[in-house]
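In practice, a research group might receive sequence data for several interacting partners and want a quick structural hypothesis before committing to experiments. The following worked case mirrors that situation: the sequences arrive first, and a predicted assembly follows.
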Amino acid sequence: MKDLLQSLLKEAGIEPALIEEIQEVGVPKKAATGELLITPGSTSMYMPFVLNGVLSVVRQDDNGNEILLYYLEGGETCAMSLACCIEGKKNDFKVTAEEDSVLWMVPMSHLDKWIQEYKSFRKYIFSSYQVRFDELLETIDSITFLKLYERLYKYLLDKKQATRSYEINMSHEQIAQHLNTSRVVVSRLLKQLENENKIEIERNKISIL
Amino acid sequence: MKDLLQSLLKEAGIEPALIEEIQEVGVPKKAATGELLITPGSTSMYMPFVLNGVLSVVRQDDNGNEILLYYLEGGETCAMSLACCIEGKKNDFKVTAEEDSVLWMVPMSHLDKWIQEYKSFRKYIFSSYQVRFDELLETIDSITFLKLYERLYKYLLDKKQATRSYEINMSHEQIAQHLNTSRVVVSRLLKQLENENKIEIERNKISIL
DNA sequence: TATTGTTTGTAACTAATGTTACAGAGTGAG
DNA sequence: CTCACTCTGTAACATTAGTTACAAACAATA
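A structural hypothesis for the assembly, expressed as tokens:
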């Protein structure tokens, strides 16, 4: 597991001395598919660095409605957790394991020192922020400018991309939640996508063609 | 003008030595109402620090459709410009002066050094990121969870907040653009708001009650 | 195999938003 | 004042998305 951590950090441009430190102060954490890692209202003491698997970051409103913001994959970290922690604020989103995943949990208390000392870490952190901004903007684009039909198709393609699999194992209900719509609407539009030979529908499974 | 800069920076917690530096290397810039400050596709060499006035940050799609992301007010800076510049990317949003405004333009080249040297600057930058994340999330909330009627009312209240004025001098067409809808729809819903005694409509002017 | 719960398909209807078209009111330049 | 232009109000209609209701297919397990 430490090998994976090392190679991902190296890939991210982190210098060897800091890789050492991160290895020493962090602890591993496994998360099974569907496991809830961060809940709204909690405060993060750890910066979660994804070793493998996929996490989803979801926004919730007061009535329990939801919308998917983006996925986190290997080598990435949750910039919004950082932002929250640095400001001492509560998280206002939830993070769930979309597949069995492994994280490296790094105590936030080291962040300021590292940002000061390591140029490579500054770069990594700012790059993370940038990537998340981009993802949020893309999410806003989808919600704002696309019809639900297009958004659904984009959702499936994004999911394919994140999980590196042409098969998506979700119920229509689950998809509807990520898009903040109803199951009936999703079923209707999926059927339409199937009729246009873009996907194939089975129970709890959608294959992208 | 330098007085204003100084007091805003002090308020933001920036230490005196850095305030000096910022005063020395920055230059003032005035922007008249409606002036375009950042266009999609450009690259920012300066960090724009708002001294007074209000700027709007707007996202555009390929067909020229738009949506307002948030306003920037005195003492704030455009975290997305920072993010873009640090990563050497092009801006993918536009920034417009909503009122006559004055900015302090600080060359980005100093940022890394300041982040390294000044704890107060790290705090300011990370706080800016946090605030922008929050604003983007709030925007996502509005688009996702609110009906257009509610979104429009919230838009008017936000505008009131940003400009510190109960009178909004915009045409329905302009409002429609910020919400990515059509003028007719905005007129319809404004009329509804007027019927519920929440606003008063005149030509090019909406008063919030 | 029988039973139960989950998932999907579909129809019929409602609500929200978008579009087109046109009239009339207000404004500024000449 | 007149003309040209912009802005607003409103009706009629189209499209998209949300809701309710129910049946059938499938899966798990007792």
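Before designing any experiment, note the following. Residues 147-149, 181-182, 184-185, 188, 203-204 of chain A lie near DNA strand D (CB under 10 Å from a C1'). The CA atoms of residues 60 and 66 of chain A lie 4 Å apart.
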